[in-house]
Design a protein that fits this description.
172 residues, alpha+beta, Aldehyde Oxidoreductase, domain 3, 3 helices, elongated
């Protein structure tokens, strides 16, 4: 199995966004096919009208988060909430991974200099998807009741450990 590069290689938003993909003319694009996103479920928990507390996990910086990192944070947060307050919350992911992350794979090992073509056509192949997040933009939203506030804060702190960047928990 091919291992992923560290998140530090694609964490910061240094260049313009690249989400261009045409369904009509895929051969005319550099991105021939979009890589799959790991994040498939966006709404969890029980939808009710009697929730009186909304807590958001808000980004403190401009950052880019890969879809597998978002999925890992979602699983961690949802598993904790389901164990501690079953059917007492509504959990929603507010960002979607649109950004295509490209990687120019190089040959490594003995004799790689004879095989590798260097930087010839170094646009890169699409490897994964990421969500671009601005400073102050909410990533997760949990609606629940006031007595469950500590459980949601703990679930968010566990989810923060799975994602790069810094975040704040805001309660309304």
């Amino acid at each position: 199995m091919v291992s992923l590069r560290p998140a530090s290689t694609c964490r910061y938003r240094l260049s313009q966004s690249w989400a261009r993909y045409s369904k009509r003319k895929p051969k005319k694009n550099y991105v021939k096919a979009l890589p799959h996103t790991s994040l498939l479920v966006f709404n969890m928990g029980k939808r009710k009208e009697d929730y009186d507390l909304a807590m958001r996990l808000v980004s403190s910086e401009k950052i880019q988060i890969r879809s597998n990192s978002l999925e890992s944070a979602r699983l961690t947060c949802n598993k904790y909430l389901e164990a501690n307050i079953p059917e007492g919350y509504m959990f929603k992911i507010l960002v979607y991974p649109h950004q295509v992350i490209r990687e120019h794979k190089m040959a490594s090992g003995a004799g790689a200099d004879r095989i590798s073509k260097g930087m010839t056509l170094a646009f890169g192949k699409p490897v994964s998807m990421a969500a671009r997040i601005n400073k102050g933009q909410p990533v997760f939203l949990v609606k629940t009741t006031v007595p469950n506030r500590k459980h949601v804060a703990t679930a968010f702190s566990r989810a923060m450990a799975k994602m790069s960047g810094s975040y704040k928990i805001i309660a309304e």
